[in-house]
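[agent] plan:
  1. take the single chain provided in the ticket
  2. run structure prediction with default settings
  3. attach structure tokens to the ticket
  4. add a short note for the reviewer (M.T.)
[agent] executing step 1
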Amino acid sequence: MGSKATKETIIATAARLFHTNGYEDTSVQEIIDAVGVSKGAFYHYFTAKSDILESIASSYVSQGLELTDSVIKDSTISGIRKLNHLFVVLQQFKSRHAETRAVVHRALDGDQNLKMEKLITGRLRTRVVPLLTAVLDEARAAGELRIANTREMAELLFVVLSRFKTALRELARQGVDREVAAARIGFYERAICSLLELPEGSINLIEPHLNLLYPENGTPPQTEE
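[agent] step 2 finished; step 3 output follows
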């Protein structure tokens, strides 16, 4: 097994064990035994178990951002439509990679992993804020937005969307019904419209996110833990 293949096998095996047993309850030795490599081989690629989690999270983030790049470069849709499409694409990506997302979220829920969460959030901000700025600039150039400070607005949107992501996780854990979830999501939808000085309904968060939480009409949300 080549060096790259060995590293990828360790990451994939660890991700499976994290998902099955939980991050905290999976030891380095269990990962080594499951992969069938020596301890020396493991520590050749990783200094600690947290390094694997960082690799999983970084890969997940990178794959999602590849999709956002394709939306940004799509010349067939305008700024505000592009922003809405961006939300839909990201939710579809999260749905397709639910297991990886669950691994990361379960691990980051521990207090001792706050440092890792800050690291991942920082990486996301570095990549996402410029993308949001580009979309807002495009919408402003097309006369769809009146706001002048698009970079600052992109930073603020990132914070709101990060909190929105947390709210979705809370909804999934609580197992609320569809109407309650729609009302909670609608709050963020209206808040973003207000921030961007857009008419209500210009931003569509409710439908794509309800479809993520409720794959079938009436089915309770699926928890990530």
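[agent] step 4 note for reviewer: The chain is about 75% helix and 0% strand.
[agent] ticket updated
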